Amino acid sequence: MDFDGAVLAHRNWKMKLKSYLSKPDHSLDASVVAADNRCELGQWLHGEGWQYSNLPEYPKLVSDHARFHKAAGAIVEKANHGQSVVEETVLGANTEFTNASTDVVLSLMAMKKKCDLRIVGVRSPVHSQPGQ
Amino acid sequence: MSLSEDVRLLLAARAPTDPNAARLLEMFTKADEI
Fold first, then answer.
1. Minimum-distance CB partner of A59 among B4, B10, B28
2. Average pLDDT, stretch A89-113?
3. How many domains does chain B fold into?
4. Rounded to an integer, what distance in angstroms lies between the CA atom of residue B13 and that of residue B28?
5. What is the end-to-end Cα distance of chain A in Å, rounded?
6. B28 contact residues in A (CB cutoff 8 A)
């Protein structure tokens, strides 16, 4: 799975969660949702994606992903208790769930950009010297 | 910086043989202390 696939996996997981939240039937356990190493992205992060763990963005991605799942678990907990969670998950809402999700995608895109630049051999402006 | 207990255990298990896991674990531990 590449970075685009990782973003897609995250979006698909979120879509499934939103589908569940539209009609919570208690089939999802909040503690399972809160676990950040069970979803496809979580498996990738600590499996195939570990090859990128030396990038400075990696720990931020791990942290953002943990925040996202913690928020998702709290939302499922509320939904399973019959409380409304629409305001927390709606597109554009300024909540921990939506912010952490955005941060996950931004971190993945930043890592993709850095890896793409490495592949084509573009030097970072920070390390470029005049006349080189 | 957030680190789940599951991932902390995973990093701790890797740390003895993987310097990068050890580095990340130390980074998250320090972040927790701040």
1. B28
2. 89
3. 1
4. 15
5. 36
6. 59, 63
Q: CB–CB of A46 and B7 under 8 A?
A: yes
A32 close to A63: Cβ distance less than 8 angstroms: no
Quickly state the pLDDT bin for A91 (edges 50, 70, 90). low
Q: Do B7 and A70 touch (CB under 8 A)?
A: no
- Summary mean pLDDT of chain A: 87
User: What are the distances in angstroms from CA A66 to CA A22, A96, A105, A127, A132?
Assistant: 23, 11, 13, 33, 42
* Crossing angle (nearest 10°) for helices B19-33 and A57-80: 60
Class of domain A3-120: mainly alpha
pLDDT at B16: 95
Rounded CA separation B23/A78 (Å): 36
Q: What is the ipTM of this complex?
A: 0.82
pLDDT tops 90 at residue A32: yes
DSSP structural state of residue A23:
S
* Domain ranges across chain A: 3-120
Distance (Å, whole) CA A4 – CA A25: 31
